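Hi everyone, sorry if this is the wrong subforum. Our group has a chain we'd like a structural model of before ordering constructs, and none of us has done structure prediction before. Sequence below.
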Amino acid sequence: MTKLFGTNGVRGVVNQEMNVHLALQMGKAIGAVNPGTYAIGTDTRYTCDMIRSAVSAGLMSVGCNVLLLGALPTPALQYYVKTHNVAGGVMITASHNPPEFNGIKVIASDGTEASSEQEASIEEKYDETIPAVDWAFTGTCTEVSGAADDYVDAIVSKLDVDLIREAKLTVVLDCTNGASFYTSPLLLRKLGVRAITINGNPQGEFPGHPSEPTEDNLQDLMKMVRDTPDAVLGIAHDGDADRCVFVDGDGNYVPGDKTLAILASSIVKQNGGGVIVTPVATSSVIDDAVGKVGGEVVRTAVGSPKVARMMMETGGLFGGEENGGLIFADHQYCRDGGMAIGRMLESILTIGPLKDQVAALTPFYTVKKKIVCPDHLKEEVLKYLDKNTEGINKDPTDGLKLLFDNGWVLARASGTEPIFRVYAESTDKAVAEELASKYESMAKLCISSM
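Answer:
Right subforum, don't worry. Here is the predicted structure as tokens:
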């Protein structure tokens, strides 16, 4: 069976791995496994039209109708699917990947990302010769407007709008030239927030900076916040706007794990307890913050679909990943960059400035290493590390997590890139750096010997 799906959909370089043949066959497989009407959205990459057209043609060839929602955030497509009677959705996006990449993300009928079982069924069907329907039963293609506006209105309905409007806040917003170019400015306008926007044009080469909202990529945003009188927050999305990261009012980048801990603590406190779900890769700062207010943290494998489904199973109030992907159970079970903006504004107004909330967290030091590793060697690297760490306490939930008295190390293969990652954490910075360097060297030695 052809392996297509990674941790977040199918991705590849356009006209190489991600080509028209793959997209057409994917559309046919999706429609053959679960017939019906499909909503399709895209991010702003220049290649989205080509990939979307091929997927749509595949769906229609097996009798499925297609609704074209246009360029909008992934959570906006998911909200549309959740609230309309459709078989599912398809998002054409490669999220944070460079502009030469694109991808296909399948959305289930409840608005969540397809389960691993659904993905396996699509992969199995993909390898078959899928017959087209008779010409009289081919699907139709219809453009649909208003999905982005409905998504923003749904977010606003969940927030304390009066509290936010009365504060007359100023923020700086970096849309990354991606899918949030319309929705996030609209959201802030409806909340009465003065937004100074940069990288706000839908340009698929992401000319402002690479589409992943890392500290290195957000230097312009950080400077703009520092240079803007009264700015209380900087906001940045990734390419498809399911993620959101923040810069405090002094222009300091706030790592996603700290945002996760701050919002998790607030939500647990408001509810008098509850479950928070996050992957094994997330910093222990969330365990510390949530534990102090009587909450419980449940760990999963990496990937927002796994976090969302565990939230559904455990009744989790909130969950997410350390990369800025935050899931709010009272809205929808998917990463939602728009809702993250609203909840962070509420947090600032009810608890205090973001920089003060960050300063109140127990300091944990996390070091992240990224190693180029061909896909066919990833499993061998894991086996090598496992064999050479006998006697150490291990968590095999995802990859290999080594647990020490003074910290931990996580070694795992990327599900979206030819990358092997090594994370290390400790309350002692020197220990974290030492652990990361040690196991990075071990992984590199294994790769170079093959």
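For your construct planning: The mean pLDDT is 96. The first helix runs from residue 20 to 33.
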